[in-house]
Amino acid sequence: MRIFDPHIHMTSRTTDDYERMAAAGVRAIVEPAFWLGQPRTGPASFTDYFDALIGWEPFRASQFGIRHHATIALNPKEANDPRCRPVLDLLPRYLAKDGVVAVGEIGYDSMTAAEDEAFAAQLALAVEHELPALVHTPHRDKARGTERSIAVVAESGIVPSRVVLDHLNELTVAAALDAGLWAGFSIYPDTKMSPSRMVKILHEYGLERVLVNSAADWGRSDPLLTVRTAEEMLAGGFTKDDVDKVLWRNPVAFFSQSGRLDLADRNDSEATFAGNSILRGGS
């Protein structure tokens, strides 16, 4: 079994997680830029964060043979903070980087006017840089937020098949697929989507244009819930080829639209990054 997790925040996870993921079949991941849990105080902290997403994290992942890519954006929550808005001017520098395969996470948190502006501006950057877009649907009032997101995407002129609406559920999947977008689902221990619910959605809506991720971050989450979903699919009557399509070929197809997806085997276990390894303390 090979797994591609198309949305996971490894900056928040430990090296032990990388080890467990590799042992379970996770071979590739995409890490979207997101909110760190407390407000950033200015653009400089984003610069350091973005640098880590395209430098240190790919190095950490490579120690276990996992290919790491990133998406870069001003996230919806911090789009409301005037201190963070200048980050929009920094984005073109990072959207040109080889390891960046989409603009994201963008979209809505509270559906404010400031979020409207940042969402539209970053969809325009996706079009300009010929990149896909990863759109965060809000955790509150998800149905209205999904409908509004679809409208903004349509207004932007971006090709619908280059956009994934993430964190969907049973109430929002049909609207995303009917609009020609990709449908993303985050599998969580207590919230969002469970493996069993995901399997029911796959039975009802099929396997096309569907991405399944763990969205594991600093909260209660599990980077192996993609693997648990694969197991649930097999138990629910899907074939191994079906599992490979949803959990490998689909994310490859979506992010390949960037022209930057690199899935060549790589294991830099003997290498260092800026003179450092992931080992601490020595033998």
Counting DSSP E segments of at least 2 residues, the number of strands comes to 8
Mean of residue pLDDT values: 93
CATH class: Alpha Beta
Low-pLDDT runs of 5+ residues are: none
- Secondary-structure arrangement, i.e. CATH architecture: Alpha-Beta Barrel
Largest sheet: 8 strands, parallel
Please tell me what the overall shape is: globular
Structural class: alpha/beta
**Percent of residues in beta strands?**
5-15%
Distance between the termini: 34 Å
| CATH topology-level fold name | TIM Barrel
Strands of the widest sheet, in order across it, are 1-2-3-4-5-6-7-8
**SSE pattern:** EHEHHEHEHEHEHEHEHH
CATH homologous superfamily assignment: Metal-dependent hydrolases
List the helices and strands and how they pair.
Blueprint: E1 3-5, H1 15-24, E2 26-32, H2 43-54, H3 56-62, E3 67-72, H4 87-95, E4 100-107, H5 113-128, E5 133-136, H6 142-156, E6 163-166, H7 173-178, E7 182-186, H8 195-205, E8 210-213, H9 225-235, H10 240-255
Parallel strand pairs: 1-2, 2-3, 3-4, 4-5, 5-6, 6-7, 7-8
Question: Could you list some keywords that capture this structure?
Answer:
single chain, 283 residues, alpha/beta, TIM Barrel
Would you write up a description of this structure?
The chain is an alpha/beta fold. The protein has one domain (3-258): Alpha-Beta Barrel (TIM Barrel), CATH 3.20.20.140. The protein contains 10 helices and 8 strands. It has helices at 15-24, 43-54, 56-62, 87-95, 113-128, 142-156, 173-178, 195-205, 225-235, 240-255, and strands at residues 3-5, 26-32, 67-72, 100-107, 133-136, 163-166, 182-186, 210-213. Strand 6, helix 7 and strand 7 (182-186) form a beta-alpha-beta unit. The longest helix has 16 residues, at 113-128.
